[in-house]
């Protein structure tokens, strides 16, 4: 039986396996110089079964380790060695060992031992030893090096055990053609590719859910002109073409002196004028002349280079430039149109307008922009136990949290919101509410009542007014989800548990709102982070854990969970700054492995 292995390095790892006595080490000591000669830099990891030592008693490093140092790193200008005391019951973990290799210093790692791991290997087989084949129960064998008369299946590359050149050819080819596996994100956001995949009776994947949701959404096409100062997180309806160059004139990026680079040899230069921002020098600068110039002032004709004031000395209307050997032609000159050229598309339709975009539009002279109308989102809660915050909390009840998280997230996405309050859990009231809400809103969102409980009237109400699907999404939290249409409005029935509401909103409602609002080119962000402790999930479902990411002492992004993960515990969202997303083909992430996170940044 082979044990799952994933290569953590950006270079290939190739194993050599054989029964003892086959000549593995002899072959490797011949192969290594042969590969070195071909310019291939090698690392070797060798498994040892016994308590070996690489140091000598009496040496300082040996004595320090024996004195109790868990790690000793001994280094000279020739080599360094790290010795780690790591007594474990089981075999050492190859993935952990591989992470110790400096992948920028070698081209391939050859591994001797670790026979049971599912890593690509060359099997060595010597017929005279009468040992069984390894490849018959290990599908990771890519080639077999054996004797002349040994039978080898057609699917395996056959190598001559005594021909080091031939084996080196194979390793070289392997190294040259190896490609790092493509990064697979935990959620696929390819709307078209997934939409028509069949639904399984056990539920659909998050990716399928997203594409099915997006399949129900048509972008708003009404537009309006809005003053720049009133635009908050809205979507541009048309391309904006610049009518001017930005900057309008070629100008200085420094307070200093403008001159022609070719005049450098005639220094000191004669100062003929001073140019302040908003002004210009009306003449053409001649050879041997300079102007005193301020940041943002127009560079005179005839000048092409600026020297900063602190690198020049001025006296008697002349300037001596210092460190002339470092002056580069064109330095500190901002060319007309270098930010945006006249006639260029400055922003494209479908772009979300944040601070930078608004600044850019202002810099082009626009004071109003054509925008898509904001989506209108109506939100209500259901459930006899759900009470209005501010009222007295009745026995057996809870305060309504979901309406507030949904309203806040919808507003953050630039929607206009309608708060419909808490709606009584009965079929008639819910039917009336839904029918009315759909006349006012592009999206109607409820929470609670979409699972299999007896009092879940929302399903009946929906059947009365629209056309809705109830899906079980293979994810946690947020398994039940209702999506449908009430006339032209989109309906989302989110599950009742408060964390499930927020996670479902992020994964399904967010892309729908963005598409409806006319935003294009949006994709959820996945950032790789190092899991500081082991993370558990179950294959067959996508797990969204609440996490806290931060930059570790190693300069890399690390993540930990917030602790207890109950889908009713809103505090876990408050304490988190990201979701940790474990893909549906993964059951555990060992500590130290990479995992994808989705920072909350643009939503909470
Ligand atoms: N037999 C089964 N039971 C449940 C299943 C299942 O598959 N089979 N799924 C569980 C999952 S997962 C979830 S999530 C919930 C979803 O159920 P509902 O959408 O019907 O939600 P409710 O039962 O109405 O409420 C669940 C939970 O959330 C609280 N809640 C409801 N609304 C609010 C609100 N506005 N603010 C704060 N908290 C709210 C409610 O009191 C419940 O505790 O079903 C599981 N059960
Ligand atoms: O959606 Mo539920 O909150 O997974 O438990």
UniProtKB/TrEMBL annotation:
Pfam families hit by this protein: MobB, MoCF_biosynth, MoeA_C, MoeA_N
Cofactor entry: Mg(2+)
Record-linked InterPro entries: MoaB/Mog-like_dom_sf, MoaB/Mog_dom, MobB_dom, MobB_MoeA, MoCF_biosynth_CS, MoeA-like, MoeA_C_domain_IV, MoeA_C_domain_IV_sf
UniProt keyword annotation of Phosphoprotein present: no
CDD domains, per database record: MobB, MoeA
EC number: 2.10.1.1
Pathway, per record: Cofactor biosynthesis; molybdopterin biosynthesis
Alphabetic keyword roster: Magnesium, Metal-binding, Molybdenum, Molybdenum cofactor biosynthesis, Transferase
Gene3D superfamilies in the record: MoaB/Mog-like domain, MoeA, C-terminal, domain IV, Molybdopterin biosynthesis moea protein, domain 2, Molybdopterin biosynthesis moea protein, domain 3, P-loop containing nucleotide triphosphate hydrolases
Enzyme class: transferase
Known role: Catalyzes the insertion of molybdate into adenylated molybdopterin with the concomitant release of AMP.
Family statement: Belongs to the MoeA family.
Identification of the protein by name: Molybdopterin molybdenumtransferase
Gene responsible for this protein: mobB/moeA
């Amino acid at each position: 039986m082979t044990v799952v292995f994933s290569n953590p390095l950006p270079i290939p790892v190739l194993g050599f396996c054989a029964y003892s006595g086959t000549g593995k080490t002899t072959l490797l000591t011949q192969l290594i110089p042969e590969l070195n000669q071909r310019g291939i830099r090698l690392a070797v990891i060798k498994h040892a079964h016994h308590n070996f030592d690489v140091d000598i008693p009496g040496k300082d490093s040996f004595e320090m380790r024996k004195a109790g140092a868990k790690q000793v790193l001994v280094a000279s200008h020739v080599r360094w060695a790290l010795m780690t005391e790591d007594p474990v019951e089981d075999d050492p973990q190859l993935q952990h060992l591989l992470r110790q290799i400096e992948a920028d210093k070698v081209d391939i790692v050859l591994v001797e031992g670790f026979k049971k791991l599912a890593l690509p290997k060359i099997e060595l087989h010597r017929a005279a030893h009468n040992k069984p084949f390894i490849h018959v129960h290990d599908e990771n064998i890519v080639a077999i090096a054996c004797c002349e008369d040994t039978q080898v299946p057609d699917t395996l590359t056959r190598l001559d055990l005594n021909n080091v050149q031939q084996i080196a050819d194979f390793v070289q080819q392997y190294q040259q053609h190896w490609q790092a596996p493509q990064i697979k994100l935990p959620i696929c956001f390819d709307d078209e590719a997934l939409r028509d995949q069949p639904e399984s009776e056990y539920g659909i994947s998050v990716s399928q859910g997203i594409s099915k949701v997006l399949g129900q959404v048509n972008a708003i096409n009404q537009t309006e002109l809005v003053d720049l100062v009133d635009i908050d997180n809205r979507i541009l309806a048309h391309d904006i073409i610049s009518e001017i160059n930005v900057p309008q004139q070629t100008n200085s990026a420094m307070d200093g002196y403008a001159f022609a680079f070719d005049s450098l040899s005639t220094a000191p230069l004669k100062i003929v004028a001073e140019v302040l921002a908003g002004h210009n020098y009306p003449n053409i600068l001649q050879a041997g002349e300079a102007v005193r110039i301020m940041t943002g002032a127009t560079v005179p004709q005839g000048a092409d280079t600026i020297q900063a004031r602190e690198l020049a000395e001025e006296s008697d209307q002349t300037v001596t430039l210092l460190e002339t050997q470092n002056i580069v032609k064109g330095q500190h000159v901002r060319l007309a149109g270098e930010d945006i050229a006249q006639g260029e598309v400055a922003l494209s339709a479908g772009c979300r307008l944040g601070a930078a975009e608004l600044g850019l539009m202002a810099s082009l002279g626009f004071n109003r922009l054509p925008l898509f109308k904001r989506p209108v989102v109506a939100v209500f809660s259901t459930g006899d136990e759900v009470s209005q915050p501010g009222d007295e909390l009745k026995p057996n009840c809870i305060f309504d949290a979901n309406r507030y998280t949904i309203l806040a997230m919808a507003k953050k996405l630039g929607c206009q919101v309608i708060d419909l309050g808490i709606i009584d859990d009965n079929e008639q009231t819910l039917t009336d509410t839904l029918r009315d809400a759909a006349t006012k809103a592009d999206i109607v969102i409820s929470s609670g009542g979409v699972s299999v409980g007896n009092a879940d009237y929302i399903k009946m109400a929906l059947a009365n007014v629209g056309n809705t699907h109830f899906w079980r999404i293979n994810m946690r939290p947020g398994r039940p989800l209702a999506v449908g249409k009430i006339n032209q409005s989109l309906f989302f029935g989110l599950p009742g548990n408060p964390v499930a509401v927020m996670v479902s909103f992020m994964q399904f409602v967010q892309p729908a709102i963005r598409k409806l609002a006319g935003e294009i080119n949006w994709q959820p962000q996945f950032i790789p982070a190092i899991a500081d402790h082991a993370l558990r999930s179950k294959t067959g479902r996508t797990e969204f854990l609440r996490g806290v990411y931060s930059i570790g002492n190693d300069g890399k992004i690390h993540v930990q969970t917030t602790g207890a993960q109950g889908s009713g515990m809103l505090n876990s969202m408050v304490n988190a700054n990201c979701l940790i997303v474990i893909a549906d083909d993964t059951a555990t992430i060992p500590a130290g492995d990479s995992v994808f996170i989705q920072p909350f940044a643009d939503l909470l």
